[in-house]
Amino acid sequence: MARIRRGAAKPAPQFLEDDPSTGYLPGRAWPTVRYGLATLLASALLVFAIELIVRGDFFGTVDFFLQPFKPGWTTIIVFALVLVGLDAILGRSHQSLMIVAPLTLALAFVGHQKSHYLGDPLYPTDFLFARQIVALLPLLVRERPWTAVMLAVGIVGGLTLLVYGWRSWRRRVPILSRKGRLARLALAVPLLAFFVSIMDYATFSWTRDRLQIIPIMWDQKENYASNGFALAFAMNVPMAHVSAPPGYTDKVLDAITRPGVAASVPDQKPDIIVVMSESFWDPTQLPGVTIKPDPIPTVRALRSGSMFSPEFGGMTANIEFEALTGFSNAFLPAGSIPYQQYVRTPTPSLATFLKSEGYRARAIHPGTNWFWNRGAVYADFGFNDFRSEETLPPMEKRGPLASDAAMTDEIIREADASDDPVFLFAVSLQNHGPYEPYRYYNPTHSVDAPISSWARESLLSYAEGSADADRGLQRLIDWAKARQRPTVIAFFGDHLPPLGPVYVETGFLKDNVAPRKEPSADAALEHHDTPLIIWSNRSGPVQNLGAVSPAFLPYHILTTAGITHPYYTGFLGALREHYRVVDRNLLLTPAGEATPDWARQKQIDPKINDFRLIQYDMMFGKRRSAPDFFPETVDKLVAHTS
């Protein structure tokens, strides 16, 4: 009876004015306006906090919001609409903030860390290799243990507060009425759909133009700085899809000049061994640094040229992709990882071709086979097998990782045990960053540099690893010299090491990482060139190659081995006469003439356009060019089942 009387005495609520289901007490004036203003304020504070975390600069963040109709204000509106829509779904006012805020702030923190260590913003596709990041955590913890402890405490404390706040909010805030929820959805859903439609960077949008949201997909660092973290991140979601280049038709493909080169190998097929040495570089290039003794004497004596890496400090798989396929990352969306996104069916590579000529194609890497999706990718590239941590015998460690010496032992053992000619592609692991001080208990070098003690010891750790890689190369050379079978060895670094503060303290870089868009071709070469050696036990080292993109590596290897192929030595050989570097931001001729920002120009060199068309056709298209350029792939293609 008491319940009935209380219910009968309760005044009938009025929707959107004094309905307690809106989250405000009955009788309060303009609850709808209050709810809207509170949501906008929460959205503004959240967006400001996100930008502050990502940028790490208070005044720079303030500048981002100073003028009206800039992307920052658009982001605030979008966030407010997301909060309103989620409130309707969750059924309580402002509870959506407990989901959106932790998630976006965590993304902002990860984005700041990635930019700090690798120089790139956070892309949606980065989550495709989250497992790799987890696998590297022990190294990161070893380098900065107290930072790791504080981060762990912060995560546990934050989750505890979040659970407490969630339960407390649900007890104290009334449930929204059905009408209140429908009204929120009716407002949020159409407007959010409108904003999603204008985020397609590939098409012009008058509204987006008026809001001053300009997709700068060719310069992602500027894209994130200009449009803010959230909008730039959203605009990168569609980049996993690769659109056909303009003019991709059968007629245009048929018009590409066919090389007058057929596939051929010598009667005595040479073994081909390619070693991609993790983060291998010449640390004596750092200003004011003296390392004794010389950490890389073998490389210095045999150096053929430089590998122009499309990456800096990481993203090894992208260099692998170019070196094995002869294709280029320049024609793929910025921030994409072909190993993770695009290699899903048999794809032509050096392994595919050489296996068709009777070679045993094998890959070796002392890490796990799932890292960078290598197990599946190597199968699609045509390798006969891939020996990884799971299938290799226990390998001696040098520091925390499998040693270069142990990997060299495996290369020699594999080659000597094979009656067939071998193509061995090996990826080292020992000198992977971070380079914590005192990584090796028995250093054989000394570093003299006017830098902090931490930076000097970190550089010493790196120099020791580089010296071990150099010794591994010398062992391969000595072994190959004593062989009867012709042997070609290629050795190169995948990218400059992630030395971080060492670069800043020595004055090599202004920041921990090199900018994506360099002010000059010379700066790009300085920050992206790694040593390259191509050597034969019949003719010695190849000389005077200059800087070359990894995509041209198949041409130089096969030419040294006396092997020809319609694409690898024919098409790439003809292209190499005009360009030695084909990068997303730079074309470089053999004479050193540079064309920056070439992809933004209205007219693109037909030779580069043919390169792009063949790559698209073989990776995403109808493979119409396969009979002429990749005849070994014309058999029936079957997708891998890994």
From TrEMBL:
Sulfatase N-terminal domain boundaries: 270-563
InterPro entries per the UniProt record, alphabetical: Alkaline_phosphatase_core_sf, OpgB/LTA_synthase_biosynth, Sulfatase_N
The UniProt record lists the keyword Cell inner membrane: no
SUPFAM superfamilies: Alkaline phosphatase-like (SSF53649)
Top-level division of the source organism's lineage: Bacteria
UniProt subcellular location: Cell membrane
Membrane topology according to the record: Multi-pass membrane protein
Documented EC number(s): 2.7.8.-
EC class name: transferase
PANTHER family: LIPOTEICHOIC ACID SYNTHASE, PHOSPHOGLYCEROL TRANSFERASE I
Protein name: LTA synthase family protein
Source organism per UniProt: Mesorhizobium humile
Lineage of the species this protein comes from: Bacteria, Pseudomonadati, Pseudomonadota, Alphaproteobacteria, Hyphomicrobiales
